[in-house]
Amino acid sequence: MPQNYEEYARRIRGYVDIAEVNEYARVLEGGVEYPLFRLTVPGERWLVITSGFHGEEPAGPLTLCRYFADIAAYARERQVGLRVYPCINPSGFEDGTRYNRSGEKPNNDFMRYETAPGVWKGELNRGEPFLRWALYDGGPKETRAVRADIVRHPAPVAALDIHQDNYLPGAATYAYTFGDKNLYRPIMRAASEHAQVIRDEKVDEVNRTDADGLIEYNDGSVTDYFLRSGVPYTATLETTTRTPLEACHAINLIWIRGFIDLAARGSGSTS
Predict the structure, then answer these.
(1) Which of 85, 87, 170, 245 is a plausible cystine mate for 52, CB 3.0–4.6 Å?
(2) Beta carbons of 221 and 265 less than 8 angstroms apart
(3) Residue 262 CA to chain centroid, in angstroms?
């Protein structure tokens, strides 16, 4: 569903009294210059939230815009700092299209794996070995811009990327996670109050959820990058685009609060 990004940007700028509102870059799409925003709330341990890589997945950007004051208050109570990138692909968001107005595909272009000398790929098959990974210098302008801003900060304790699935039917949710699944099961149980959890089912040609609605997949995304950077708690949340928006908000907020709680626990970097 197309959105008005000018109004969205106005509302994001309106949070200047509770957060540091920065334009980390601007991108030109179809003759229109779009500001890209980072919202920062200071704290002892950090959570990075990204959303809006795909323009036809509006729930994440809308949740972050509508409920940011509540999110910031919850984080401050737990001394958790936030770096929030609420809408990474503004022209896609405005047009209601998956990719940007130039047809580029923001999302899986943070990094690449060298699987054999001189052979690089963006996604690994399950258990596939690799020699090393590296940041990818190419990709769409939106990915390059957010990557440049993310990597100049110390690694956080937790990172959550909010997406939607525009292909599966019905109101449902699942997530890509790394590490101890026991950390994410309570969050998913809470989310199941608002939409069906996709359990033990294929979600695409490659991935199948487990009994808890979780998938582990190295796909060159921002979540994969944070895993390789040593971030203890990393996930990509999915709700279907056929899930009612209010249910998406509820699920997104459950995961956001859950990740704030995980960041507050601390583990690894406390930058």
Answers:
(1) 87
(2) no
(3) 16
